[in-house]
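User: I'm writing a short methods note and want a consistent example. For TonB-dependent receptor, I'll paste the sequence; you return only the structure tokens, no commentary, since I'll be parsing the reply automatically.
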Amino acid sequence: MIKKYIVAFVLCIQSIYAQNTEISITLSFENIDLLTAIEKIEEKSKYTFFFQDSWLEEYQSISRNYENADINVVLSDLFKDTLLNFFIIEKERRVILTRNNRIYDYLPDGFIIDEETDKVKENNIITQSQSFGNILSSKVNNAGSEIIRIGKSVANSNQKSFNISGRISNKQTQRGVADAKIIVNGRDLGVQTDKNGFFVMSIKGGQYLIEIDALGMERIKKNVIIYNDGTLNIAVKERVELLDEVILESEKNTNVDNTVTKTEIDVKESKNIPLALGERNVLKVATTLPGITTAGEGANGYNVRGGKSDQNLILLDDAVIYNPQHFFGIFSALNPFALGEANIYKSSIPVEYGGRLSSVFDLKTKDASKEKVAVEGSIGPVTGNLLAEIPVVKNKSGIMIGGRGAYANWILSSLDEESLKNSEASFYDAIAKYNHQIGDKTKIEATAYWSRDDFSITSDSLYVYGNRAFSLRLNHRFNEKNSVKVAASNSQYSFDIEFDGDADNDFELGYKINESELKLQFKYLYNDKIKLDYGVSGKLYEVNPGTLQPKGPESIIDPLEIEKERGLESGAFIASEIDIFKGFTLNAGIRYSLYNALGSGTQNVFQEGVPKDEGTIVETLTFDNNEVIKTYGGPETRVSARYLFTDDFSVKASYNKTFQYIHTLSNNTTVSPIDTWKLSDLNIEPQSSQQYSLGLYKNFADAMFEMSLEGFYKRSENILDFKTGAEILLNENIETEVLQGKGKAYGVEFLLKKQKGKLYGWLGYTYSRSFLQLDSPFDEERVNNGDFFPSNFDKPHDFSLVTNYKFTKRFSVSTNFVYQTGRPVTFPIGTFSFDDTEFAVFSARNKFRIPDFYRLDIGLNIEGNHKRNKLAHGFWTISVYNVLGRNNPLSVYFVTEDGEVKGLQSSVFSIPIPSITYNFKF
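Assistant:
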């Protein structure tokens, strides 16, 4: 019977307090709080307001101007951006304020009561008006006395469901809680937070009991009343439990569920993989995974799915690193202690990345500790490493500073071999990062990086090369749906060669490339099924192709400086990830890239219908500073799709089209640190590629095992290569020495990974082929008769087995076994004599192969005891690299000595290399 009295009460209000106000108000105020504004209205209108003071505290800066305005108009405008509603009782000149809900003086449509059952039917006052939510709810749930009200009830609204967004955060650290479950009790409804703790859900209006459950956090329940769209932010406490063993599982089916396929490398676990001289190397770990390899042991660069090494975009906190290797690829140039994430995209490359054909290595440093000082380091047979994290403003900002260096010079000088005593082989790198959290919505990060290598092995030449990078990033969340990232970066790579011989031809040679980029990227979460990613970017390249200067007063070398190059690469991109139907998600996007080769400079025009050489130049064009020499560009389509058969089994497909406007110039069979970069211009066109991939992804035994099988096919255009006998370095007319052709690559990649238990690791196998075609109407510009031939890094079979077995919590043994088909080489197939000297006649390019490569490494890992109050935690790694002593050839080359052609083989490690490294952390 209570509902009948409610109806009578509403009808009574309607008849007695019908609103028919005709009061006009003239007043203005600027930058005052809402309470003061209401007091001014009371003074002018003689109305009395009723409310709770706490409702007005958050509204502190109000500016308005009203002239002869109706009281209803004034109040509607004043409260439009608040959670407050008003109800005027005209007879008593009173204004009743309510927060979230409304007071109604009429019965809304659909308010029908069944007298027999005494129940409100489906289209009742709760869902229509939201006004009697508290009165008609059966009871206040026992989750606590606090009731959270969301949104503002709007008169005459026909909206049935509302979008609730928010963030679940750690109460102690203020960081977002990933994979927290938000469950609506009594309803088949629930969502999960993303990696930053954000969520969005759609729900009908009314009162609910909502439960928040997250791994390692206390489970809590909240009474919530939904009036309209709004925000729900909840902080949860950490749950402390004493257990014998804790196994953390997060995103266990991510590899199956993600639409955009990426390879994630566990930075912490990489310490257990035995590598050369005990050094941690995340990028070397990547080469044990399917589809990623190198041209050989001791070669710089990486080859991904049959692509050249210059086709990989390697980023450190959004700044490009041109050469991420120390000492010919044996060591990483990136401090392993500073890295927090390592993600590799090799098939479905997101639209935000541009400028490379094969892959993106997106490396991110970890945030510096904002709570306490932390120090981490290692001491090995060749290198030493130290990294410190220091809070600047407690719980808000911190700085990380790390440095690493090699002391191989001291080792070389101690050897008995006279030829090595005067050699040099050292490297250094340093990194610094500052991160600052401004409130809950804004974060600023700045990263600076520097590296340098010096080497001179039994030679009269000193080689020096290094990277320098800086990036500044601002991440801001406008609300639960919109966020922005602004990133500015600058990168530089350079090398120098100092030749000091016995003759009068000593010289110094230098090369440098510099790039600066600004990127603006927005993310919009339309709802829990549709996400948008869009933005723009601009990058300026500046290349100094080389300078040659005489060294010392006795040198007769003529100075030479190759003309500088400049180019501007711009891009605009947009992508959307849409849940089409249950199990099927589509990620479709497009990037439009535009490249302008800029002056000042000169460009040669060649006679048509004849080969390009210095004798066929018909004109040299001159361009002023910033004048456009040539424009290239076009759309880059990126599409990927995923269909879930079950929660742990999916099929994925993708298509990528990409452009690349920068090339490496090299006539070495393996990548060298003195290879130069060349921008596209009037005579050298940008590279382009299209890649198709299809894969199956399956997890077994509650994600203990991951398995994937993916095939790919890639076609490329304008791949840069060189003419036979080309002179690359310090060539003023480089376009006469290079060729551009077609490439194709295809393959199948298999990965089986075990992630739990005492034994874990992975088995990877790739069958792939990579071919190049250099065809032309002219013989001197044609290679292998214009047919496709294997590229320098074509390795059909690539097998890796990485394991780690834990005997106890402190002792484990690791192995790393690698087998690869020998890469292609060009062999002499005959000789001829001229002037009493024998010369070689070579085969078609890359017709033969060097011997197959295989290597076994073993490591013993010993962790210190796990006492809680000890000053430092130690970790020993004892390893043997190349246990089998395999003399794997890096390259095979041929020289003429004493009138005879001789074949020579170069290797990096031909014997077992033991090492011991001590890691510490406190």
